[in-house]
Amino acid sequence: MNSANKTDTKCLGFLRFLAACMIAFFWHYQHFGNNFQYPFSSVFHWSYNYGYLMVELFFALSGFGMFLGYADRIAAHQISFKDYILKRLKKLYPLFLFSLLLVTVLQSVHLFLYRDTFVYQHFDLYYFFLNLILCQCGLFCTDFSYNGPAWSITVFFILYVIFYLIVYHAKSTKIAAYSFVGVFFMGIFIRSQPTQSCFLFNDNVARGLVCFPIGVLLAALYRKSERMHTAPLGYISLFIVLTIYACYRFSVEVIEEITMLFILFVIPAIILSILFVPRLNQLFSLKPFQYLGSLSFEIYLLHFSVQLLLRNIEQPVNFHPDYSKPYYLLLYFGATIITAIVYKELISKRMSKFLSRLIEDIIPKKATQDN
């Protein structure tokens, strides 16, 4: 693939940012209560009601990025499973651990002030240990605990293992991509079961199994884009997105099964339109949008800490905010963005270095080196 195509995917970073914002600032705004009129509800009606579907988009974008970034090396047996997992740990775990420790402190303060936990009830040593080893949701339990939004990190690592095993044993990356159709239907099967298990066979894992393969298949299509007329595909995809949204806004009864509609049609259409509509690609590839995209993971994992902090200061200062007012949403938005930037610019490197040294002390140095 030529270098031009490789740089096209930078525009997807801003899509991650938008997904993180919809989850953090609209879907999870319900954490402040649901007995009031949400600010800007007429504009962000979809985000307040269906913002949870942005996690599905995250899973798909992860599948897209993993296929482009790792498929060739894994298929050629150029990277061991141990090195592969360590690279993913070094990328995700520092922020995950920081957010876990921060929530632990803030939730403890909340428990002292209000004699109860904020939103997520499971707050004990057992669940802390599950969080610490990235098994907090989908492997041994299906309950949200501590930093609740971080539940998806467990599923990400399950998907990473499945991805490596399929690509490693496939005869080519093309066969590997097609193999993920089976993973997709496995996810559909699990979601359809009336009784689910705490271990793997549950809806939390199934959400990843359904959406990650869509990203993989889109990445396989993207690899062929240099031989295609991509602009028409981009405009058709954009038309699909706008049509479905118009149906939702003006005749919501038309959309009965919004989850599968979003997964099967909206996710692929959003990704393809941003990739292949030239003006959109150019716009969202600009450096300011790339920087915002680089904050998406921080926003996703740190926004609950900001909510806890805001809630914790209410009682000591005898302050009772009306969260239906737009300026409280903007205050929460600004505080979260600033927190994300502070972590990224001042803390992330220190956390990464600390954990890298810790990993090298625990695991033989040879195992941590890339092939």
Low-confidence stretches: 1-7, 367-371
User: So how many helices?
Assistant: 16
Total discrete domains? 1
Order of helices and strands: HHHHHHHHHHHHHHHH
Largest sheet: none
In one word, what is the shape? globular
- Share in β-strands: under 5%
Overall pLDDT: 90
Distance between the termini: 22 Å
- Rg, alpha carbons: 21 Å
Helix/strand/pairing category: mainly alpha
> What is the total tally of β strands?
0
The share of residues in helices is over 70%
Please describe what this structure looks like.
- The radius of gyration is 21 Å and the shape is globular.
- With 371 residues, the protein is an all-alpha fold.
- The N terminus and C terminus are likely disordered.
- It has one domain.
- It has 16 helices and no strands.
Write the layout of secondary structure elements.
Blueprint: H1 3-8, H2 12-26, H3 45-50, H4 54-75, H5 81-114, H6 125-132, H7 151-169, H8 173-192, H9 203-223, H10 230-250, H11 258-276, H12 278-284, H13 287-294, H14 296-312, H15 326-362, H16 365-368
Features:
globular; mainly alpha
Short précis:
The protein is mainly alpha-helical.
